[in-house]
Task: structure prediction
Amino acid sequence: MMGVKVGTMVQTNTGLTQDIYQGWSWPCFFFGACWYLYKGMWGIGLLWVVLAIASASFLHWIGILIIPFFANRQYVEHLGSKGWQVKSVEP
Result:
């Protein structure tokens, strides 16, 4: 449902783990900017909301068809910037 699971990331100081995926993100497709906000990527989420409002939803619909292709990769990069490290990679 969320793309193809490609591994796990771990937060080094707490030991928390997070599955990582690649490909199309169905949650991002269905929930749009809310998915970004829920995942803690405030900048992208708020930018999406502002652009959707400013363009009378036109950019929101364009975004809903394009952004889910990149959402999982952006989330992995976000976790990496917060100090998470790849724990395992599935073949």
Summary: The CA atoms of residues 51 and 57 lie 8 Å apart. The radius of gyration is 14 Å. DSSP finds five helices and three strands in the chain.
